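Inverse folding, one chain.
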């Protein structure tokens, strides 16, 4: 048996067949030829010397053992003798293959309720080398934004090591590496895969009320006009965070109506003259698979001073403001007025004939003592209202990627009679601005490719842009360094492909990948990478026959 490493060069001598001759026999003329077992013409034998050499590239992963049958002809002046010699050649594995992952990038979801220690994914890479060269150990190179996972180095099992919370972080980016266990540490090869883990929202938050629990109403309050808005928030997403409202108790006679979607409380029937306070038990319920609910006791206090009560021109306002607007930027202006002689808000606002009448009771009236205010801490102090004009302006930095909309409660209060007031809801949507550039994360990395191969997809670039719509739509192009157009990157998927490369012609390429959004103005990020060409033994080698025969050992 003879052994040869799979990376042996063409022409490498494996051994020599030396026939045993009789002492009384004339020295014969020898002739050698391989007649069987020479898969892929891997070896050649010298026809007269019997030396066996490597004739083609060997690959342990394809053929680990060759069983050759060699025909040996011994010819003398008096006779010809033919025999067949069996030669077994064992190919020794060389660590020439790195691990390959099935999916790159790997994307999957994990519920935020997953128990710590649970197996959430099993990474399986394949290394076609043999023995220790094909045994893989797994490790986590990188986790962001938090280290929530651990990996079993032997099995590739990814486990949750601390609790997830969708409301704190909805996605994680990991880099998993597989390294073979070649006996020589310096010979070990590795490869990595980008992992995107989406956290699935679960209905684990209970709604909570942010609106006040006491409100006033006047004896002559018009029907079907909102006098109070119940507001509850739920930190969950989508249906888990959508809240609807209901009066659970305290409304047996059906005097009040609560809009189930927007929480506006109004009169369905006239108030009773002898009742000065109503107590309503209001619930807020989300729409998760197992709904969560919260309740609030709302006290409705009946006031007699209807004639001079302040009233907003609308129970709810809608506004939009550009993110990153400078402090002091205008948002909108709310307006309140004084009622008189029992006139309702609807009567005053919707009667064009009585416009002059209405005008006499606007807050701007010199005799008015109304004051606008927003409760401290509401909407994180991002907005403020002018106490006398009702103009709402930006009071702090606004970032749509942090919060996309705000809901404010604005009050108009009589300064002399502090218990006489009205409130309105102002919903402010933040308009996206193209203020974020694409982020490559860890997909911007140097690459190595083999020469002479149809490369196909070499790598996938991923980039994220948290902006909305066109502002967040990322495309990829090669900006520079694409010599002879050897490479191409897909505009939308970021998949980098290439044509066969020749290391003897060029050993490396330095290209620039540009990720850019579609906003105006366009924001872009560049990634400079080096693509190294891995050498292949593709140049012919010539050799001369050995001067002396070596006996096969």
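Residues assigned per position:
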């Amino acid at each position: 048996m003879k052994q040869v490493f799979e990376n042996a060069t063409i022409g490498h001598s494996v051994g020599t067949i030396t026939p045993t001759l009789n002492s009384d026999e004339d020295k014969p003329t020898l002739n050698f030829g391989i007649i069987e077992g020479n898969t892929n013409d891997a070896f050649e034998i010298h026809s007269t010397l019997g030396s066996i050499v490597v004739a083609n590239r060997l690959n342990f992963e394809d053929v680990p053992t060759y069983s050759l049958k060699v025909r040996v002809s011994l010819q003398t002046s008096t006779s010809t003798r033919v025999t067949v010699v069996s030669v077994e050649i064992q190919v020794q594995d060389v660590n020439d293959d790195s691990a390959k992952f099935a999916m790159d990038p790997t994307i999957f979801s994990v519920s935020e309720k997953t128990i710590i220690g649970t197996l959430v994914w099993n990474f399986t890479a394949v290394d076609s080398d043999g023995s220790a060269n094909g045994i893989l150990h797994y490790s986590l190179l990188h986790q962001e934004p938090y280290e929530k996972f651990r990996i079993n180095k032997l099995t590739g099992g990814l486990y949750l090591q601390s609790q997830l919370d969708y409301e704190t972080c909805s996605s994680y980016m990991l880099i998993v590496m597989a390294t073979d266990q070649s006996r020589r540490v310096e010979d070990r090869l590795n490869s990595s895969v980008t992992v995107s883990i989406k956290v699935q929202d679960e209905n684990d938050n209970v709604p909570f009320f942010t609106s006040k629990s006491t409100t006033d109403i006047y004896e002559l309050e018009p029907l079907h006009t909102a006098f109070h808005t119940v507001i509850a928030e739920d930190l969950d997403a989508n249906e888990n965070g959508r809240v609807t409202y209901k009066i659970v108790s305290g409304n047996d006679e059906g005097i009040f109506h609560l809009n189930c979607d927007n929480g506006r409380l109004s009169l369905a029937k006239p108030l009773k003259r002898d009742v000065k306070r109503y107590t309503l038990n209001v619930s807020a319920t989300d729409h998760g698979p197992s709904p969560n609910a919260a309740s609030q006791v709302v006290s409705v206090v009946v006031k007699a001073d209807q004639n001079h009560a302040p009233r907003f021109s609308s129970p709810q306002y809608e506004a939009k403001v550009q993110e990153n607007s400078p402090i002091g930027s205008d948002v909108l202006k709310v307006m309140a007025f004084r009622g008189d002689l029992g006139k309702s808000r609807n009567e005053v606002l919707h009667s064009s004939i009585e416009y002059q009448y209405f005008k006499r009771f606007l807050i701007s009236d010199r005799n008015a003592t109304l004051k606008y205010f927003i409760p401290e801490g509401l909407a994180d102090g991002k907005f403020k209202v002018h106490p006398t004009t009702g103009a709402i302006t930006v009071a702090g930095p606004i970032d749509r990627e942090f919060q996309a909309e705000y809901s404010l409660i604005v009050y108009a209060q009589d300064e002399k009679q502090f218990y006489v007031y009205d409130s309105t809801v102002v919903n402010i949507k933040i308009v996206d601005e193209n203020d974020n550039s694409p982020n490559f994360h860890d997909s911007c990395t140097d690459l190595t490719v083999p020469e002479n191969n149809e490369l196909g997809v070499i790598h996938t670039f991923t980039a994220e842009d948290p902006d909305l719509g066109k502002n967040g739509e990322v495309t990829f192009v090669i900006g520079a360094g694409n010599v002879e157009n050897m490479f191409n990157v897909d505009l939308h998927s970021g998949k980098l492909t290439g044509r066969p490369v020749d290391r003897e012609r060029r050993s490396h390429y330095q290209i620039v990948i540009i990720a850019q959004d579609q906003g105006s103005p366009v924001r872009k990020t560049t990634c400079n990478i080096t693509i190294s060409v891995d050498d292949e033994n593709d140049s012919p080698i010539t050799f001369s026959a050995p001067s002396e025969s070596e006996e096969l050992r």
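The longest helix spans residues 345-349. The helical segments are 238-241, 345-349, 355-359, 469-472.
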